[in-house]
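User: My instructor asked us to take a sequence, write out its structure as tokens, and then describe one feature of it. I'm not sure where to start. Here is the sequence I was given:
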Amino acid sequence: MEQTLQGTIIYGDEFEPLDGIITIEDGIIKDIEEKKINADTIIAPCFVNAHTHIGDSVIKDPPYLPLAELVQPPDGLKHSILAQTSTGDLVASMKATIQDMIKTGTCAFMDFREGGVTGVKALNEALSGSQIEVKSFGRPVDNDMSYLDSCDGTGISSTSDLEIDVIREVARHTKRKGKKFAIHAGERDSTDILPAIGLEPDLLIHLTHAGKKEIRLIKEASIPVVVCLRSNFITGSGLPPIKKMLDEGIVVAAGTDNVMLNSVNMFSEMEFLAKTVIYDDRQVFKLCTLNGAKVSGIDNELGSIKTGKKARLMVLNKKSDNMQGIRNPLSSLVRRARPDDIIRII
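Assistant: Let's start with the prediction itself. The structure tokens for your sequence are:
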């Protein structure tokens, strides 16, 4: 089945706006024709949310507490609530969050799932029938790592939360299974960054307190990083040195982190990035799309509009009350656009 879209296309890996027509066949971008047209739409690649905890959907209005009291295992608020939540309620809350992601322009996400094999199976149940793509990272419970048979890897909270020898064995077992190993680091302070780098992870999360030495070592080890600015801001962790990491050539992507602290709305994450730490609209959009696809290992299919890639696109209204009068489609998309400006999602 063939369909066409026309408008201002945020085109290619450099996200250059051009007017033209996209031809889609069987869900794949077949052709992109640059053509002068009169269209009131912007066609952009959908977001890739590179770090979430959607199990946190069971609590969306926590009290203002220090980070450790909110999320540190095993006694943090989220873990206490998750332990009291039935599987049915957990699945239902995650389903709602997945639908929210889809409606707000996200086509893929990476999730850290607590609860061992039970937690991973609950996520897979929540995903049933959905078109969104996911890379899921489980976490061992009582040394049981059978969750690896049902997900893409392991996601550990921090080297400060478990004995380093235990984490090292978890990392080794994960890699022996041919799966990815990811870990939070540098969120509360810098003490867990070097131990995390020493584990040779496939992905680091946060790096809020990374200094020059840590950034250099991350670059040398070619480890990608995911930053979660709104989450770090609300927990008082500070803002990560993203520009320094980008200047070193580190692949940096963006995620919304815990659902209990922030919505999964990537428009909000993108605007916050653009107005706090990266005054480069093209780079911000890249963090939220192509770089998210890169760290997820799906950039050959998603993250930008190119011939041969999947047509996972959002069409926005240039003439909405919010967007009326824009002059730079990419800058306006990054700094101003909202989910209610979307008129169609492919």
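For the description part of your assignment, you could build on this observation: The chain has 13 helices and 15 strands. Try explaining in your own words what that tells you about the chain.
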